[in-house]
Amino acid sequence: MSKENAAKRIEFVTLRMVREKTSLLYPQRVIRKPEDAAELFRQLIGDCDREVFCVMTLDTKNQPTAFQTVSIGTLNASLVHPREVYKICMISNAASLMCFHNHPSGNPVPSSEDIEITERLRDSGTLLGIELLDHIILGDGNFVSMKERGLM
After folding, report:
1. Where are the domains of the chain?
2. Which partner from 10, 64, 146, 148 sits 20 to 30 angstroms from 131, CA to CA?
3. What's the pLDDT tens digit per position in 80-95?
4. From CA 111, how far away is CA 45, in angstroms rounded?
5. Longest C-alpha distance within the chain, in Å?
6. Residues in Cβ contact with 25 at an 8 Å cutoff, skipping those fewer than 6 apart
7. Taking every annotated instance into account, which residue ranges of this chain make up the domain MPN (predicted)?
8. What are φ and ψ of residue 144, in 5° steps?
9. pLDDT for position 85
10. pLDDT confidence bin for 45, thresholds 50/70/90
């Protein structure tokens, strides 16, 4: 098996495992509101002492199809590039996506960098025809939906 085929096989198996794990943790399988997405994200990443940026892809019925950790950063920062975010969207044939990250400080208030990357991801998705539905930031027991706050 060539290295390219092996890499494709690993991606396929990873996506399949994510789908199975997601269905076990989230049996209703439909994201109807930011609370649904925040709860699923909290279950999947648990407590982290560093900033973690993740993407959840959804089909046309808002059912999760894949969940990918895009970046694991430092105590207060994470490097995120649209190329890495939309790669998983293309692989999983996503109709839309939601982005998530945590603030280890416990305060989920979006920073100026959070707002900037959200706008950049939204604009990139518009070009690709994949809608960014929301960017959710988790804190200690609470969360902020950037869409509900009108920040995207």
Report:
1. 3-145
2. 10
3. 999 999 999 999 999 9
4. 21
5. 49
6. 40, 43, 44
7. 30-152
8. -125, 130
9. 95
10. confident
